Amino acid sequence: MRYFESKHGKVSWDDELRSVVIEWKGFAYGEEFQTILLKGADLLKLRYGSKVLMDTREGSAIKAEDKAWIAEFFVRRAYESGLRHLAMLEPHSAIARMSVNRTVEGLGTLPYRQESFEDRDEAVRWLSAQGRELRAIG
Predict the structure, then answer these.
(1) CB-CB contact of 52 with 40 (8 Å)
(2) Is the N or C terminus of the chain more exposed, i.e. has fewer CB atoms within 10 Å?
């Protein structure tokens, strides 16, 4: 189910994966960058989800202002929206990959579990396995 789309990204819900999927397309910054992430958090809360597949393969470098915004605001907002597991598909571009990795490393300890992947199938398998122990108990 498509929830939001712009020229720089798309936010959707994957019923099979029971996850928000955020797909980046090119360079987004400032309000555009933040809107895509906030729409992802909104959809997570709306669907009572706990998982996000963040596909940055076609993404670009992250500006310093947006790195600060993620650290100061978005991590908390995503967690409050229900995020517990995030699988990130790394960018194809070496420059973008370094930027994304520096951003993640700069966040320190996260309130949710995040893993990075190069292969989409591997990311989906990992994300699918998350939370199974909770359903088994309940």
Answers:
(1) yes
(2) C
Residue 42: how many CB atoms within 10 A of its CB? 16
Domains of the chain: total: 1
For residue 119, give the CATH number of its domain: 3.40.50.10600
Exposure string for 53-66, b = 16+ CB within 10 A, e = fewer: bbbbbbbbbbeeeb
CB 93 within 8 A of CB 56: no
Distance CA 120, CA 6 (A): 22
Structural domain including 103 reads 2-137
Instruction: Give the SS3 label for residue 2.
Output: strand
| pLDDT per residue as tens, the chain (138 positions) | 899 999 999 999 999 999 999 999 988 999 999 999 999 999 999 999 999 999 999 999 999 999 999 999 999 999 999 999 999 999 999 999 999 999 999 998 999 999 999 999 999 999 999 976 444 443
| Helix intervals (H) in the chain | 30-46, 64-69, 75-80, 94-106, 120-129, 132-137
